[in-house]
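Record type: ASSEMBLY
Status: queued
Input:
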Amino acid sequence: MIEPTLALYGDAYERVDRHLEELLSNTGVRYCLLVDRKGFVLSHKEAIWAPRPPALDSVATLVASNAAATAALANMLGERTFSEQIHQGENGTLYVESVGDEALLTLIFDSNVPLGRVKVQTKKTIAEVAAILKEISEMPAVELGDDFSQGASALLDDLLG
Amino acid sequence: MIEPTLALYGDAYERVDRHLEELLSNTGVRYCLLVDRKGFVLSHKEAIWAPRPPALDSVATLVASNAAATAALANMLGERTFSEQIHQGENGTLYVESVGDEALLTLIFDSNVPLGRVKVQTKKTIAEVAAILKEISEMPAVELGDDFSQGASALLDDLLG
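Status: finished
Output:
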């Protein structure tokens, strides 16, 4: 089974949440998504005035797959990766920026939102969120000792006869 | 066999060439590629000071496939297509903009080139190139009459006995 690279929950989740909230109110973007490189949504926020977001799961998958696909293009031009991708349509913009090596911050906003402001604010948010994600990835994994596995085996034997 | 959507040659080719040349000298970009939606290079230019371009054929293929792949994402956000895509790396930028429905103008430039200038100049070039491409696509196709096909058949019969 494919699992997210990062488990974002509890205190860390709430801190990330606050940073995304702040980014939304500072820039005026519609939707904001933190996605891991495999396409899982780690966290998301919608502006209060922006009803009916698109299917964010699908957007996340497509954004992650697109980021992976453009890696070949980046290498060809001598870049390690494209840290920033901007897709501009008639009515709005999809803005994707790398958060460390593991995640992507995706913003969706209307064409009247100034791109410059979004860029500046996003840089700040990314520095903060990247620090939180780094913390998480450095936390020791939960290890289940021998005791636990023996106890679980005994319990299963008991249950299944 | 896959064939380019557009055949750019002769007078039209030279006019496009001049426009690309002008774009290069006005903006300071390294490489400039006109690619059709299937990934064929229709025309390309390199700045004199920019030696060793990357494999432009491969870049063209990847740019076209990427543009097609992001169409799903555009539709999901209610856009017809993303008319402008910017991929920013550490050292440089890959800038792709639609030229009508059939072609893509791709620019590769270093990070010291101001994006704003590139955008303004590109808009101008695209209007001019799009007009030329439209002219071509509206030209009547060369039709070979009955005479030609009879003549060719006779010639073949003659040749092959």
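Annotation: Chain B has one domain: 10-160.
Annotation: The mean pLDDT of chain B is 90.
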